[in-house]
Amino acid sequence: MSSRIRKAQGEELPIVIGILDEVVAWMEQFGDSLWTEEEVSSQAMQADFDAGDYYLVIEGEQIVATFLMQDHDSYYWPEAGKGEALYLHRIAVRRAFAGSGHSKAVLRFAMEQARKRGIDWIRLDCDFHRKALNNLYTKLGFAFHSEVVIGDYHGNRYQLSVTSAESKE
Description:
The chain is built from 5 helices and 7 strands; from the N terminus they run βααβββαβαββα. The protein is of the alpha+beta class. The protein has a single domain (3-168), classed as Gcn5-related N-acetyltransferase (GNAT) (Aminopeptidase). A 7-stranded mixed sheet has the order 1-2-3-4-5-7-6.
């Protein structure tokens, strides 16, 4: 699998939302919800999209995945300063391409970006109850950092040292 990653542009917000909606529908088949319809609406996502924080993973000519990458996260990591880490959110792979290594490609891309910017950490959060997803993050090399509770959300926060990951490559 050879894929490339680029920022989502111009009129591509509906494509990003379509990928997220596909993952939401797939999760709902199992009685689970990853994001609410409100969270993946164009209104909720427009500011991050306009800021250039959404990316697309492309295999051949097909857009197969999307993710949000920011240099700050004042909601889940309020104690962290801007530029201390890169934060990954809403990693979503179209079901037809799941299991093809696109999550690893996102991680490699985030590590490249962190190195270029002189940032030492890649961070993300995950709902406490999503055991498979929590396991995937540790399998990808992330270490548990701490728990976070915000309203009804109970999550685990993970981080990956870019320097440590480099030594394992």
